[in-house]
């Protein structure tokens, strides 16, 4: 399986192409796809936590204190997207198989089912 580092992040699903909050979530995923390290770990954990809190939860202290203003604004917008679109999960922003995209993302950061829960189903 390829990693997000070697694979382009899928675009937004057509229904969300013009949604500024979905665009913010996509920017956060793109930021994490470009870099793995302390600066993106809290963001990746937040995104995975929005997908399934059993796999990660993020570090709200880091996000509040150390994320730059644009990233913090994207975090808040992403959380607002989740609140406004309760019928969707975070991976539904992606065109194509968002579950597969989420699985690759989780593997890239060492989060998720392979580490914590053997019955993971990405669909």
Task: Give an overview in words.
- This protein is mainly α.
- It has one domain (17-116).
- Helices cover 54% and strands 0% of the residues.
- The chain has 6 helices and no strands.
- 33% of the residues are buried.
- The model is unreliable at 115-123 (pLDDT under 50).
Helices and strands, with pairings:
Elements: H1 20-34, H2 38-51, H3 60-65, H4 69-84, H5 98-108, H6 113-116
Count of distinct strands:
0
Name the structural class. Answer: mainly alpha
How much β-strand is present in the residues? Answer: under 5%
Average pLDDT, all residues: 86
Q: Tell me the span between the first and last alpha carbons.
A: 17 Å
Number of helices: 6
Low-confidence stretches: 115-123
In the residues, how many domains can be counted? Answer: 1
Helix content: 40-55%
Sketch the topology as an H/E string, one letter per element.
HHHHHH
Which geometry do the CA atoms define?
globular
Describe the main β-sheet briefly: none
Radius of gyration: 13 Å
